User: Fold these one by one.
Assistant:
Number 1:
Amino acid sequence: MIPIRHILSWGVLLAVLAFPVACQRNFSTPRLSPVTPEGAWASPTPTYTLGPNCPYPVARDITFNLDAGPVTGNTCNSTNRFMDLPYGTSAPDDVFLLRMDAPARVTFSLCGSSAWDTFVYLRLLCDQSSTTLARDDDGCGALRSRLTADLPIGEYYFILDGYSLATECGPYSFTVQREPTFTPTPVPTSTPTPTPTPT
């Protein structure tokens, strides 16, 4: 018969070996794709969902592209999930997350992108058209879009869509740039001069 002290020793040893495994946490938060030296995201394929305000996978978090390199991809690799009536009804689209840690005027520009018919819009909730803050069709001319909006601190969803048809998709390259927020100059007020009382 095996002495009790040997059984206890083996039990203590197994518990010590199993402790680190039992203490490991299962983190479900997805890791972001690496950034290329130019600042553009390396992978154009949607692989994860971020934030509570979008039930669909986002193409990427473009916060680190703010004032940095362009965001590139191809909407023909995506499906049609969004629309901003009467636009984007059948075209594939990509959705991007932008986190603002300070208020700023931000411009999303496809002016240097391929010439297919784009339509873009910015939302607080990606799947709720009632939260659309701004939209643009041909802000650059030649079918390409450019959108500018004043954004407080918060999370925003930028959706790059085709104008309408399922065939309106293609490669894209857009930039996200901050601009100084416009502060209107106060209009000087004049104090009326009292009319002299006749004596």
Note: The first helix runs from residue 4 to 23.
Number 2:
Amino acid sequence: MRTIRSLAALGLLAAPATGAAAVELHTGTWAHAWAACKGRDGDERLERERRRLRDAAHEAGERGLRLHAGHGITYANVGELLDLPLLQPHVGLSLAYERHEDTEAGLTSEYTVGLAEIVGGCRLTLLPGFLHAEGNASVGIGRATLDAGGQSDDGDWYGYGLGADIVGTLPIPMLMTLELGLGAGWRVGSSSDHNLGGTAYDIDTEGTYARAFIGATF
């Protein structure tokens, strides 16, 4: 019991020592204050609770902790929390593979791409520590293979895209956080100088995609 009390007293100061990567701000007292004055500016109790949340959010950011918030939040008062840094930016590396097939005049061509992308975006926590929604943008490079009529040739690939994912996370204390996700998006890509039978072909692709992925954050 002494440990629990000491952690409660230390608050955000204790989070890094426990190996926690995120903290959740309890917004219950703020929500009660908001309801009591119907969100009117100038109410002393509401202003005090606003300052408390802003100060805690700032301290969490300084300590490198991800920030969540909960208790008493409704559609009517949630707008006040939008200035808290509840959206966490993220940057990562993605490896992907895509395949296109087309048949024209009885000839089937296959176009495959292996690519690496730099992905950046923002993540919104839906269920603290376990479920998140995120939007992202990506730019990538790779190698593309065009295969048609029994001939094939490789070329450099470049592209970019936009996407959205639902991500489940499983924290492994003091080690990593595993991520499992489902998503969809839109990607544009192109490659050039595929030489088939003495003719050079440039390929442009554009379309939507669906994906399932597994990853880890450290």
Note: The mean pLDDT is 81.
Number 3:
Amino acid sequence: MVEFEGLKVQFGDKIIFENLSLRLKASESVIIMGPSGTGKSVCLRAIVGLVAFQSGTIRVDEIDLESEKDAEKIRAICGLIFQFPALLDSITIQENWELAVAASLMRGIKPFDIQEVLDLIALPKAILNQYSYELSLGHQKMAQMARALIGKPKYLLLDEPTTGLDPILTRSVNQLTRRLIAQVGCGVLTVTHDMKSALEIGDRFYFMEKGEWIAQGNQESILKSQHSLVRVFMEDAKIRGWAL
């Protein structure tokens, strides 16, 4: 389980959020939503030790995040997928993935082989010899997800996975997310503004505003929420074709 309790993150004099708590189990999809600049992505970075927290606790399975050594252990089981693909553009996609294979072996993890990842992600084999700048944004994002999956993480942390994608690629990313949960057993924590996608993949939801949760619950309870912010997101999903 990934969980944080009473978490506070502060940059200088600015408190990003405080007293936040959240849980993610294996084979579960949890969504964090809310306006831009509220600290949603900071939650993901804090879990893997990329952002320091001032109070509270972060725990992933049996690992309490208290040092950089703990963070390294957490990163071995939590794959963070950034909003903008962080692929090395001076080497091919296959070479990017081979770096992930080598990193996994160094950690004592038997990784997926490249063909297994291609089958799971449903990408053509020809992509292996291409460079990231030759790919569409959607295929870059899927290639980045594939690289993270090579090390067989127990949890995936996705930062705006469908931002900038057309409806076809958005559907592909959503289908992939559900496939990873069903076939691999990953727990997936997603930060997104895309309410329609969130409803397609989410089991539980946390809505953030001004550094605090203003609504949380399963899909049924969120669909019934009368909070004004939640309703704004719901109306956007309705416009985009979700039957509320």
Note: The first helix runs from residue 40 to 47.
Number 4:
Amino acid sequence: MAFGAFASLSFGQSIKTSKLKKEAGCGQARDVRGPLINEANRDVFTVRRVSFVGNIYTRDRDLRSGKRTLNEGDIFSRRELESSVKNLSRMRAIYPVTMNNIVITLDVPRKDVDIVFCVRERPKR
């Protein structure tokens, strides 16, 4: 499989939450996402890109801060992905993230994986 619709997203680019489903196709069916994660976990895939969509006020660097998520250049593993989802869910600025809120794309010949986290921000107080 080649990179999908997210190859055109630039780092830090935000898309309004109301447009997520229509424009970015944010979220991926389990029957599509599961086999991709299994293949990337079975073989040695490198994380090529980590993107966030839906963050308007929360900075990209805040979402990436510390070891909160997988980073570009990391070796992909299901455990690290689940840890990233759990760590993002602890942030107060966004609603909890689940595995249903991620999109995985693989570039099998290059052994690369792109991860898109679909976030929804909490209202500012």
Note: The mean pLDDT is 81.
